[in-house]
Automatic annotation (TrEMBL):
<keyword id="KW-1133">Transmembrane helix</keyword>
<feature type="transmembrane region" description="Helical">
    <location>
        <begin position="196"/>
        <end position="218"/>
    </location>
</feature>
<feature type="transmembrane region" description="Helical">
    <location>
        <begin position="110"/>
        <end position="130"/>
    </location>
</feature>
<comment type="similarity">
    <text>Belongs to the major facilitator superfamily. Feline leukemia virus subgroup C receptor (TC 2.A.1.28.1) family.</text>
</comment>
<feature type="compositionally biased region" description="Acidic residues">
    <location>
        <begin position="1"/>
        <end position="14"/>
    </location>
</feature>
<keyword id="KW-0597">Phosphoprotein</keyword>
<feature type="transmembrane region" description="Helical">
    <location>
        <begin position="294"/>
        <end position="313"/>
    </location>
</feature>
<dbReference type="InterPro" id="IPR011701">
    <property type="entry name" value="MFS"/>
</dbReference>
<feature type="transmembrane region" description="Helical">
    <location>
        <begin position="388"/>
        <end position="413"/>
    </location>
</feature>
<feature type="transmembrane region" description="Helical">
    <location>
        <begin position="238"/>
        <end position="258"/>
    </location>
</feature>
<feature type="transmembrane region" description="Helical">
    <location>
        <begin position="70"/>
        <end position="90"/>
    </location>
</feature>
<dbReference type="InterPro" id="IPR049680">
    <property type="entry name" value="FLVCR1-2_SLC49-like"/>
</dbReference>
<keyword id="KW-1003">Cell membrane</keyword>
<feature type="transmembrane region" description="Helical">
    <location>
        <begin position="365"/>
        <end position="382"/>
    </location>
</feature>
<feature type="transmembrane region" description="Helical">
    <location>
        <begin position="454"/>
        <end position="473"/>
    </location>
</feature>
<feature type="transmembrane region" description="Helical">
    <location>
        <begin position="425"/>
        <end position="442"/>
    </location>
</feature>
<keyword id="KW-0325">Glycoprotein</keyword>
Length: 513
């Protein structure tokens, strides 16, 4: 694999290497997709090196890394950051905004939960759009709606305008639908097999960093001044207008930087997918295949539990801290910052570890167990009266709970290949939003009526269920197998009605077993 010497190659340059020496396949197996039985016939011994060959030209596929991939990843991470910042900026100041708009804490919680509701309602059309219209349009919609929602918030700077700020947050929530499913797609389409998990972790890290900044900046920019509403409105305006300007700049950068895909595929697994004609793809059948994949369904539930628990803890953190440490709004934000920054470190470490070891199930299960232990420790030390202890336990909890997020994305892509990364990631996020809504409502009720400990123990019980489900997942690393050349099979994203597959749509993977 070589890296491009510039942004683009000349249009006339060939995308194929010289024809390789012919080699007979060891076996030809159908049965790569879930629900199909393998049918293999013995053949002559294979060549000593894996070959990925396009039947139409008989030439070897050339894979290259484009330098543009780093700019694509950076711009995506930045506008994902702003979207996450807008999600949490209300919740971390729940007491401030409840006083400013004259509404209840539950109504402020809905400014967070609207993100979750919008995702569940619109995820299927959004993933269809990603598959049918591509990466660039999806990215422009995400960054554009993010900027539009930010500007609408600038019109809600008066106590009686809660409905407008809710509508603006709903626009940002729709933008999120076109953001959360992209990390694994960007990583797969633009990055090579030795860096794909790290790239996915960095893309997720942008969203986590936005949450971290959302915990840190709002309490500093908008101190609680209940006796001076005009000053409070002025402080809120600084936050809203600053967010709008940054998000608008990132929208224009998205238009300049994003392209549908690099000129050459970065990996053999991407080369396989690019040989499948668009008319052979069925979004409905792809969804059906995913739900027939038992391993994916188990991951879908376990990922939803863990990520939903994280959303609930993030939304209610201010209320939990202020229950035991009155007047500590700024430190509540700092604790949230600690939780997310530690998780960002965990995400990068997990991404690097996966690229090095490919131990997806083992790593996911260990991180899940340690998250459970971390939440238990956080729960029983929250009311000790020492904020430093909460900082430490919150950091440990965040390292594992937030560090789990990219693990779930990449594990799903591995066990569902060659299905669309956007579809699998979208379904994982939809599951997370559903569990996030339920957990936030129930934990919020338990926290208000009883104590933060009751709400956290509720989450602990569910995470224990997630551990069991994760242990039951059968690890079948399909994408890794193709990139390593250890499979020889006919790959299709979805089955078609005709029992005869046209030769031109098949890419053969041959190697020594």
């Amino acid at each position: 694999m070589v890296e491009d010497g510039g942004e683009e190659e000349e249009e006339g340059e060939s995308g194929e290497m010289p024809a390789a020496t012919a080699a007979a396949p060891l076996q030809r197996c159908n049965g790569f997709l879930p629900g199909k039985e393998a049918a293999c016939a013995p053949a002559a011994p294979a060549a000593p090196e894996a070959e990925a060959m396009l039947p139409a030209g008989g030439g070897r596929v050339e894979t290259r890394l484009s330098r543009r991939r780093l700019a694509v990843l950076a711009v995506f991470s930045c506008y994902s950051l702003v979207n996450a910042f807008q999600w949490i900026q209300y919740s971390i100041l729940s007491n401030v905004f409840a006083g400013f708009y004259g509404v209840s804490f539950t109504e402020i919680d809905w400014l967070s939960m609207v993100y979750m509701v919008a995702y569940v309602v619109l995820i299927l059309p959004a993933t269809w759009l990603l598959d049918a219209r591509g990466l660039r349009l999806t990215a422009l919609l995400g960054s554009g709606l993010n900027a539009l929602g930010a500007w609408l918030k600038c019109g809600s700077l008066a106590p009686q305008r809660y409905p407008l700020t809710l509508a603006a947050q709903a626009v940002c929530a729709v933008a999120q639908i076109f953001i959360l499913g992209l990390p694994s797609r960007i990583a797969s389409v633009w990055f090579g097999p030795t860096e794909v998990s790290t790239a996915c972790a960095v893309a997720v890290l942008g969203n986590q960093l936005g949450t971290a900044i959302g915990f840190l900046l709002p309490p500093v920019l908008v101190p609680n001044t209940p006796n001076d509403i005009d000053l409070m409105a002025h402080n809120i305006s600084i936050m809203f207008y600053g967010t709008a300007i940054v998000s608008t700049l990132l929208f224009f950068l998205t238009g300049v930087v994003f392209e549908e895909k690099p000129k050459y595929p970065p990996s053999h697994s991407q080369a396989v997918l690019q040989t499948i004609p668009p008319e052979d793809y069925s979004y409905k059948q792809s969804i059906t295949n995913l739900f027939k994949n038992t391993a994916f369904v188990l991951l879908l539930i376990s990922y939803g539990i863990m990520t939903g628990a994280f959303y609930s803890v993030s939304t209610l953190l201010n209320q939990m801290i202020l229950t035991h440490y009155e007047g500590e709004e700024v430190n509540a934000g700092r604790i949230g910052l600690t939780l997310v920054v530690a998780g960002m470190v965990g995400s990068i470490i997990c991404g690097l570890w996966l690229d090095y070891t490919k131990t997806y199930k083992q790593t996911t299960l260990i991180v899940y167990i340690l998250s459970f232990i971390g939440l238990l420790v956080f729960t029983f030390t929250l009311d000790l009266g020492y904020l430093i202890v909460v900082f430490v336990t919150g950091g440990v909890l965040g390292f594992f709970m937030t560090g789990y997020l990219p693990l779930g994305f990449e594990f799903a892509v591995e066990i569902t290949y060659p299905e669309s990364e956007g579809t699998s990631s979208g379904l994982l996020n939809a599951s997370a939003q559903i569990f996030g809504i339920l957990f936030t409502l129930v934990q919020g009720k338990l926290t208000t009526d009883y104590s933060p400990r009751a709400g956290n123990l509720f989450l602990c019980a569910w995470i224990f269920v997630g551990i069991i489900l994760t242990a039951l997942i059968k690890s079948n690393l399909r994408r890794h197998s193709v990139n390593s050349g250890i499979m020889n099979l006919d790959v299709k994203a979805v089955p078609v009605d005709s029992p005869v597959e046209p030769e031109s749509t098949t890419l053969k993977i041959q190697s020594t077993l």
